[in-house]
Amino acid sequence: MRWLDAVRPLLDSVASRASGRAGDRMPAGGVGAALIGGEMRAHPLRTLIGILAIALGVAMGYAVQLINRAALTELSATVNSLMGNADLELRGPRAGFDEALYPRIARLPEVAAASPVVEVDARVAGRDASLKLLGVDVFRAGYVTPNLVGRVEQTDRASRAHGVNGSSAPSAPSGGPLALLDPDTVFLSPAALSWLALQPGDSLTVQVGLASVVLRVAGVLPASGDAVRVGVMDIGAAQWRLQRLGTLQRIDIKLKPGVDAEVFAHALAPRLPAGVAAVTPGDNAHRTSMLSRAYRANLNVLALVALFTGAFLVFTMQALAVLRRRAQFALLRAIGVTQRGVLWLVVSEGAILGVLGAAVGLAIGFALAAAVLRYAGGDLGGGYFEGVQPRVHFDALPAASFFALGVAASVLGSLAPALEAARARPARALKAGDEEAPTARLSTRRTVTVALLAIGAGLVAALLPPVAGLPVFGYLAIALLLLGGVLAMPAIARAVFAVLPRSRHALPQLVLAQLANAPGRATIGLAGIVTSFSLMTAMAIMVSSFRVAVDDWLQLLLPAPLYLRAAPGGDSAFLTPGDQAAIAATPGVARTEFLRATQISLDARLPPVSLLARPIDARDPGARLPLTTAPLVPQAGDPPPVWISEAAADLYGMHTGQRITLPLAGQRLPFTVAGIWRDYARQFGAIVIDTNDYRRLTGDTRVTDAALWLAPGVAPAQAIARLRASVPGGQRLEFAQPGEIRAASLRIFDRSFAVTYLLEAVAVIIGLFGVGASFGSQALARTREFGMLRHIGVLRRQIALMLAMEGALVALLGVLAGLTLGLSLAMVLVHVVNPQSFHWTMSVHMPWGLLAALASAVVIAAALTALLSSRAAMSVDAVRAVRDDW
């Protein structure tokens, strides 16, 4: 044997010290390193595949972690920067609260200083995204939030001042302290200046209602975060120019020394108007983190799935390598190397793959995170960090964690093969044909029992509730079902291959006989196929079900042929009663329904709940809402009805028929939950109230959107032209037809799942690597078999065809098993993980066409991989291949 001649001197060295403790860990001296290095040099492609499998898993997980961490860190830093030295923040609803609260708070004996703030997300002319504008009293902000006091920039540009409708107003000079009080000036953060391509002295135009307000950029905010877009005005100017007279959105409070913020907030709560809450910087950070926590958790789990798949690939390669080198390890044992030495040798090979793969993965992950943050922002497609442009920073703790995970995945993948190699009896393992013995142990009754227990535990875990709002047991259920399915595959494969019908043709008969009588290597190769294809199937079913559900939901919510809104984003644009009357009176418009969208807070530590005021027939709410429960018909004397989304029901424990109170117009008003409806747009809840009830209780007559039914014979284009002409400021209205809204919504959906698709593709690629490694190792281990076949007259192309048929049959079994297991995983994703993460329910939709295409691709790829792998085995001369048996 040539390999024995090459390593004989090294083995002699091992034998000479076999009785010492050197063999207790691994072959003595540099023998272990030489054996590992020789194996890697002899099979560089297998080594590269193992490194890449670990690297891809580590890279995806590390990149997701870096991106999320960078976005959250920047957003939290900006929130803290905007709060400045404030110990507490009184925050009200989006529509604001009565400014009369401010003097009452400022006079409290515990308060050292209080700063009132107006906060508006203003639509910038020519852009869909909004700019956060804050109105502050510079004399008070200097004590509490000095970062919100602008720095006046001297400029030679002529100062410009414009009124709401282009009318001029007196203006202060372009420079000097009085610019801080000028009603026509604004101070922008560096990120806002960069985003808008402006500099001090330029003009900024924002939309208020359907009118334009032109402001002069007078300077820069000294410290408002490096990546968040924000502008600051004088508070009086903001209330006037942005039409927020008499209201505030928040009050920043600095307490006197010795006053405990938590105690003060608790004591202050009963004296605050309904909907206004005292929150600490910690509450703000928690609320900011909650915006994307479930999304981030799911992305991290998906990234770890790629690493998990890589561990299975390492297991496949190491198991097949151990089978191929079984005689080598037996000889090492025979000349004095202990079981522990063989164990450490195989585990060390896996550890080296893990170290190299993890190091490469960290480098790839850092580069990937930097590229994503630079070109796509920090929201990873989820829309949670719009307006934030963070930069990636190296952090030793996440890097060390993912490095350790990569090494651990590779070591765990090598552990079972290492134990098998160490426990093998040298005398029996030295004999040819013993390769099937260890694989037979994979399908023992004990293994099947463990597999069934894992599957049963997974089913039980799927029934358990979330932990702290996250589907921890749902993730555990997926891991257990996947583990149980993979452990059960050897027994399933042996049973299936044993009952395959025989063929009268020589080549098919050889293939069937090989799989029936020696299925060991094939069952090992199945692990990678089943793992990757089941995960691919589960994700495909979940995404398809979600996409179809969103499309069906949109069709029910969009019954009108034409829709308009005051602006695509922000809350500065609205339609006044005069605008609504003009829209309704426009020729060609037969009927209108107006909608008012705002936000209220039901829990200060959670993001706000959307409040939607729209016409609803209480006797038939299902005509406008996709209800998930039977509606409750209000009785005379009952509080006004509201309809809550699934997310609101889950987060706040509401149910149909319950009496609840909602903070409206500074009061807590009673309502009856008349039904629960499905809403895929608002993760933290939405409440629908009839327009008439909303206006009667709040006095708010503004609206943001309208649904338009057109007269017969009037085309949408005609109606749009007439509306633009008849409504003052109509050129700023945004129009869309239902098909356009659905298409845009589905594009957003696909963007949100872009990273999911990428992670799924990585898992598939790793799985295909496993197919290649599996059949490549099988072909190399069966060179003597191929040599014997060549001796009896079988042609090379026939052997190649035989291997391709074996690859296709094994892959077909793996695909069928993966499809079955993937369907189970999809049920957990659809009915457990998704509702517990995002509080959305949906029906299962099977993408049969996509699954058939993926299954065909995997089977064909396996056949081609087996065919290509056979070339190396058949390149060995037939005589040389069998001479070991002479």
TrEMBL record:
Superkingdom field: Bacteria
GO-annotated biological processes: lipoprotein localization to outer membrane
Location of the MacB-like periplasmic core domain: 49-268, 526-725
Keywords: Cell membrane, Membrane, Transmembrane, Transmembrane helix
Compartments where located: Cell membrane
Ranges where the ABC3 transporter permease C-terminal domain occurs: 301-424, 761-875
Topology in the lipid bilayer: Multi-pass membrane protein
InterPro entries, sorted: ABC3_permease_C, Lipoprotein-release_system, MacB_PCD
Low complexity bias spans: 166-175
Region entry Disordered, spans: 155-175
Principal subcellular localisation of the protein: membrane
One GO cellular component term noted in the UniProt record for this chain: plasma membrane protein complex
Transmembrane region(s): 48-67, 301-323, 343-376, 396-419, 448-467, 473-501, 522-543, 757-780, 801-828, 848-868
Xref: Pfam families: FtsX, MacB_PCD
Family the entry assigns: Belongs to the ABC-4 integral membrane protein family. LolC/E subfamily.
Record-given protein name: FtsX-like permease family protein
Originating species: Paraburkholderia pallida
